[in-house]
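Backbone-to-sequence.
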């Protein structure tokens, strides 16, 4: 039987939704490993819409589920309908949508709140001892919800290669253990069944990011 994996998206586009290359890499690696991806997104308004040419917000209004459907080629479900009983694992790609639409991390950092729907899904998989894969910024969700967990967003020292390293410090302040790792690596927290990889938290060639996500997907499926 093919493993059934829920993939939760947060919109479409790095600055206001899911990072498209990360979401695509997750779907490609799940397919390569013979798993069945089931894509979900919350049916809520985006925090805002960003013009990806100018890097600036626009007056538009968009819906997270409708925008996520672009990545899923229309084959997507409302997150409210997700039933953990029929699924083997959960993966949440990164992108600023995680910090803007699934949580308020973008504006409040460690003092953020997590969407009730998203928190409920994460807690349901965790309680069922089913693995959760997280990449790029999405490990902050686990750091906020599961104190004492182990995750990685890459490195904790800011430099040209790791421009978002301060995220690791904020996560440590929440009581989680941050594990430094390379972009092609995935870290496994066996106790909490969490698998994380840094993805675009690192300035790296896109194939290295793709490889790291592949390692994350394989570890998630190994635990499923």
């Amino acid at each position: 039987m093919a493993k059934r994996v829920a993939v939760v998206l947060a919109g479409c586009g790095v600055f206001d939704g899911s990072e498209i290359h990360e979401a695509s890499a997750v779907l490609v690696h799940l397919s390569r490993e013979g798993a069945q991806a089931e894509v979900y997104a919350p049916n809520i308004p985006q925090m805002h819409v960003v013009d990806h040419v100018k890097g600036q917000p626009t007056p538009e209004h968009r819906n997270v589920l409708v925008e996520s459907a672009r990545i899923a080629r229309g084959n997507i479900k409302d997150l409210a309908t997700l039933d953990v009983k029929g699924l083997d694992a959960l993966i949440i790609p990164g992108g600023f949508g995680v910090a803007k639409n699934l949580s308020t991390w973008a504006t409040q950092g460690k003092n953020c709140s997590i969407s009730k729907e998203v928190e409920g899904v994460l807690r349901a998989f965790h309680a069922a001892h089913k693995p959760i894969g997280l990449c790029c910024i999405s490990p902050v969700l686990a750091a906020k919800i599961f104190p004492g967990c182990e995750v990685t967003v890459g490195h904790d020292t800011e430099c040209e290669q790791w421009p978002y390293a301060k995220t690791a410090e904020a996560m440590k302040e929440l009581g989680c253990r941050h594990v430094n790792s390379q972009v092609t690596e995935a870290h496994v927290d066996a106790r909490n069944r969490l698998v994380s990889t840094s993805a675009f938290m690192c300035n790296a060639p896109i194939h290295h990011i793709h490889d790291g996500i592949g390692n994350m997907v394989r570890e998630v499926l190994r635990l499923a």
